# Entry
Amino acid sequence: MSTKKPSVPNSQLAGTDTLDRGNTNSKLQSLEAFRSDASEQALRTNQGVKIADNQNTLKVGARGPSLLEDFIMREKITHFDHERIPERIVHARGTGAHGYFQTYENHSALTKAGFLRDPGKKTPVFVRFSTVQGPRGSGDTVRDVRGFAVKFFTDEGNFDLVGNNMPVFFIQDAIKFPDFVHAVKPEPHNEIPTGASAHDTFWDFVSLQPESAHMVIWAMSDRAIPKSFRSMQGFGVHTFRFINAEGTSSFVKFHWRPAAGTCSLVWDEAQKLAGKDTDFHRRDLWEAIEGGDYPEWELGVQVISEDNEHSFDFDILDPTKLIPEELVPITPLGKMVLNRNPDNFFAETEQVAFCPGHIVPGIDFSNDPLLQGRLFSYTDTQLSRLGGPNFHELPINRPLVPIHNGQRDAMHRSTIDKGRASYEPNSIDGGWPKETPPAPENGGFESYHERIDADKIRQRSPSFSDHFSQARLFYKSMSPHEQEHIIGAYSFELGKVEREWIRARQVNEILANIDLELAARVARNLGLPAPKAGTVEVPQPALDRSPALSQANLLSGDIKTRKIAVLVADGVDGQAIDDLKKALEAEGAHAKLLGPTSAPVTTAQGKVLPVHASMEGLPSVVFDAVFVPGGAKSVQALGGDGVALHYLLEAYKHLKAIALQGEAKQLRDVLKLQADAGLIVGGEAKALRAFFDAIAQHRVWEREPKTKAIPA
Ligand code: HDE
# Structure
């Protein structure tokens, strides 16, 4: 802090006085000035001239050459020619939403950050979820890490929490990031594969880089094929600091926990969805918000006091390590609700620019060497992606507080700065704008005073050297079906690797150090000999298992917002549909009627019933469960319809709850479906309850071995 210059009076602090406390819409209001509604407006050029003919270029005669003087055509085509900007180098595919964050209580003992101190305040947020590997138009459901980036528009400036849906990362030092990204991206000669890590260069790199072992096993787990953005956890990954008003610092790890529970797709379903609905996750988020099912997350932190920095058997600065929740429970801070879709994808979701370096007083960095490198990268990448250093002026990126400083000019400057002095100190403009002292009631940012006495050195800390104990902890903490999925994913991905030495190295030098049984199972699937022992000594971690890591323990327990397909044809029992809909509505779930075509059907009771789509239009993969009502004629038609039968078989294979009511019972025999807790036959209320309970379990895991070609 500097004391030599005049400070800002309290009345002008950080813009708090200019904002309406508790106003959830402040960001939306600030965006309002930039939103453009064309209704009842004339078509004009960019210079404001009304256009009389938007159909024809100016020509010499109706069949003659076009004229260069046609400024209307030239302006239109020129703008079109430059419509694209470079996509993000990673996380190119994404989708965004507006919402708010509200703290549960005053957390001033932990941090002086204002948005975590005032429970009456709703802080606007913009969130962008993303995949990492694929380009902008790639599929949503590929096996990949998901980005979970949140911009908080606080009264003290923007805070960006730029996290992922997994709590660790592939590398420990930022200098390895270009290597990692080059390895995972499509191969350079043929640009294959899109949106997948199942190829030689990825496995070559990670098998040579043992520090990736922990993150890779997360990426081979169900976490890499989330059911929806709404059902993903989020993590800040790095250790950050909270600083309170007394200047006391604590280390923190950020966690987002979804109210919808955490759950995933199954692999075959994820692959099919990538083709049948490329936009599956994007659509789900959009529709949930449009329908008023506002997605919600709880933000929490694991808090580690300065004194406990070294009390773990790993280094809290190592981003390939998590802190088991059983060792440090999560302190809930507040909740985030997403309640508004963007108006324009490009202006909002594409142009939003996150940076882990965007922090506010009360939050600070740790020395995690991955985080330190990120602090440089994000602003740097925006310079080429958004065309210069003024991207903070784009409406979606503007902080709510007024910005004044001596930065001037450059490409796309939109602020019209008044005054003569673009330097500080100055005596021409009364010394304004001036520094603000850091005391909490003033709000000037002050970096945490950390004493460091060390050599300038290029070296990985020896405390970062264990790469396997937490990968093992993760594997051992999985439920049996989750372990099977991990074995399946490694086998699938390595099966796509052409070079046998890479497959063998991953099995012998990585998997064998995580778990010998895992290595043996994958080796068998690849036709390789099972390794007899690992290659390194793996330390015993403090815990054998961390139940908090298994998604089996993270379900919401209800069926809120779940989607149920109802298969119908002429002669369907209309009463059964009404009863189902009523029961589902009471639980907050939704039904969609699907017919052989999109044409309405006539019920057994003679009523004409519109359907939402044909069965081919909304395939089973986009639903959580399938319900077939009775009605002899309808069931007979469905039983003779290959699309309907495939619909049921596919839902069965994807371990979804299926209810066959009344005459629909016959379909079980036609398809030879084996009985289990998720196959409900019968129409009474008890059966409906059993159906709902099965949906709440998300998937019928006991069925899985029966759906495999070769039993494990
Ligand atoms: Fe990023 N990352 N990253 N990353 N990252 C970007 O920034 C980078 C890392 C994450 O929706 C880029 O604006 C480096 C970890 C998300 O706009 C780029 C390193 C985590 C997003 C970049 C990392 C992330 C990005 C590309 C290693 C989880 C999307 C475009 C030191 C904690 C944000 C952009 C959005 C995007 C660099 C590692 C999350 C190139 C150098 C670890 C969610 O700047």
In short: Residues 88-91, 94, 128, 130, 147, 149, 162-164, 169, 174, 177, 237, 353-354, 370, 373-374, 377-378, 381-382 surround HDE (CB under 6 Å).
